[in-house]
Specification:
The chain has about 425 residues and is of the alpha+beta class. The protein is built from 14 helices and 8 strands. Strand 4 and strand 5 form a beta hairpin. The longest helix has about 40 residues.
């Protein structure tokens, strides 16, 4: 993420906080926590089966899983592991029907994850139903494999790394902290890679994953401390108190996971985030805006040609400062000045530019907006649509209209 610079990254983080609440991620976190609680036991059972058949005994697999989750969850996971252990002793659970039932129980969680992630990235799946179903089952298997990867990491740590740590005299609590951080961060990166519906650079996924893991490590002791200060917290749930506390932690975990998804979604459409900042929030931080303009706006001197007649109509243009004349030869020129868009009709219709655009003033700054960024901009800032329609109507006005008769559409931020 280093190529973005501090200004770009700060914009991404600020936009991620805004979009987190705008996209109802708080509600999504609760829904995913609900699905996860139902899928927890089937996932753990399948992990025990896979580990017990390939690497270690079922007893060792359960022990490794319990050590792993006790490091990631607040000491209330015992209620689930008691159930897993009891079920693992039933021979029929490992039959083909039992395995398929466990796998099918995970599919609703996987489907919900894909829907939520697609909603945050604002992409739609157009795949056939049965193909989508196959992908859901495959993703459920991947979710189980991620858990197995984490368990293998825990086994490796407990049997190999611990001995090396003793040899170099590294404090055990520090080694536990670092190991949990690395295992959780790597597992999170694989999880994101599997479920994110667009292609992202893996180093970006890895960076965000370790950021979320760091937040995880910071929040976990805070929750422990809160429960310690409030030992009667959740007492209204009676014998279900342990499940309530576990559900609360899973909810907090998804809260952080979805914040990570928001960061990656805004990294993916970072150009659009910057454009929105320059267009919608032009009255905000002036120093930050100048830095962004230096990188993203194109400067023209008086008489400079923005585009010529017949150029490909694959961009929309936004005037930041100055004015631009639109010359067609058969009618009075139109002027696009600060706060105006132009080139809209050509991009929407896919035809070459019917006019030549020439800068009127020195230091005229123009943003060149590509088709994808334009589409994302409309999605992120629908209030711009009215401005675009006004400008489009002006460009299509009857010939001979004086250039002075011009409506400057101002885009106001709607929060």
């Amino acid at each position: 993420m280093g190529q973005y610079g501090k200004t770009g990254l700060s914009l991404v983080l600020k936009e991620s906080v805004r979009s987190f609440y705008k996209n109802n991620c708080v509600v999504f976190s609760a829904s995913l926590a609900f699905y996860a609680m139902f899928a927890a036991i089937p996932i753990l059972l399948l992990a025990v089966l896979a580990l017990g058949r390939v690497l270690v005994s079922s007893q060792d697999a359960i022990g490794a899983l319990q050590r792993l989750t006790s490091a990631l969850l607040p000491g209330k996971q015992k209620v689930i592991f008691d159930e897993v252990y009891s079920l693992s002793l039933i021979k029929g659970i490992w039959s083909t029907v039992g395995i398929i039932t466990c796998l099918w129980s995970i599919v609703p969680l996987v489907s919900a994850l894909k829907i939520v992630f697609s909603s945050i990235f604002k992409v739609e799946s157009k795949r056939p139903f049965f193909y989508e179903l196959v992908l859901d089952v495959s993703s459920a298997l991947m979710l189980m494999l991620i858990l197995i990867f984490l368990v293998i990491g825990e086994i490796t740590y407990s049997q190999v790394v611990t001995r090396l740590i003793k040899d170099i005299s590294l404090p055990l609590h520090l080694a536990d902290l670092l190991t949990n951080f690395v295992i959780a961060g790597t597992g999170m990166a694989i999880f994101y890679y599997v479920f994110i519906p667009v292609k992202l650079k893996f180093r970006h996924i890895l960076a965000v994953s370790y950021l979320i893991s760091l937040l995880w490590e910071m929040v976990r002791p805070t929750l422990f401390f809160f429960i310690t200060l409030n030992p009667r917290f959740g007492i209204a749930f009676g014998s279900l108190k342990a499940l309530f506390l576990l559900f609360m932690w899973v909810y907090v975990s998804f809260f952080m996971i979805l914040f990570g998804v928001e960061i990656m979604a805004n990294l993916w459409r970072k150009e659009t985030v910057v454009l929105r900042e320059l267009i919608i929030r032009a009255h905000k931080n002036a120093a930050e805006r100048r830095k962004l303009l230096q990188k993203y706006a194109v400067s023209y001197k008086a008489g400079g040609v923005v585009f010529e007649k017949g150029s490909p109509g694959n961009r929309v243009y936004y005037v930041v400062t100055g004015c631009v004349k639109l010359l067609t030869g058969d009618r009075e020129p139109l002027a696009a000045c600060e706060g105006d868009f132009f080139g809209i009709a050509s991009m929407l219709s896919g035809i070459p530019e019917p006019e030549t655009a020439i800068a009127v003033d020195d230091d005229t700054l123009v943003l060149h907006i590509g088709e994808k960024d334009f589409s994302d901009l409309i999605t992120l800032a629908p209030e711009i649509t009215v401005t675009l329609l006004r400008r489009l109507a002006l460009q299509l006005h009857t010939p001979g209209e004086p250039a002075q008769v011009r409506e400057t559409a101002q885009v106001k931020e709607t929060m």
